[in-house]
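Run: sequence + protoporphyrin IX containing FE -> complex structure.
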Amino acid sequence: MSTRHDSITEATIRCLIDAFYARVRNDPALGPVFANAIADAAWPGHLQKMYAFWSSVMLTSGHYKGNPVAVHHHVAGIAPPLFGNWLDLFEEVATEIFVPDISNRFLQATRRIAESLKLALFFRPDQPWPDDLRQRPGGSASCA
Ligand code: HEM
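>> structure
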């Protein structure tokens, strides 16, 4: 069994991203959505973007320049329930690659970004909340 990484560096981010998207491409729900949006020849470019994105998020490197909300608006087949699949897979891979302290930092960041992406893409103030958004994990707050 290989040792889990205990630091966040450009190299360990690449390791995470390569493993994550290899699994995404094989996933029955997510694979077809990505295959439809990213041709085989375009994958190296997508991975480069994702290294830059995660380097900016976790190392505040500023490498990523882009607009994820605008890009996801054009992804055919993206839907709220798929975010659950995406997060489950990300958690699976992050916990295999990193020690818990580090994988937890990635997971906190991903959950936060996934939530705001989902809201930006799907929440419409004039429409009822989709079931997937209404059923938030962690129970409900109360101020009795
Ligand atoms: C259901 C969940 C998701 C699906 C199906 C999805 C799918 C995709 C696809 C197909 C692309 C490439 C689009 C293109 O180049 O035309 C993309 C780009 C990207 N995704 Fe996602 N995504 C999901 C969730 C997420 C989440 C949760 C994050 C961040 C935590 C994320 C971050 C990004 C970024 C940074 C890009 C690159 C944007 C750019 O071109 O600048 N995605 N996504």
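>> summary
DSSP finds seven helices and no strands in the chain. The CA atoms of residues 49 and 64 lie 7 Å apart.
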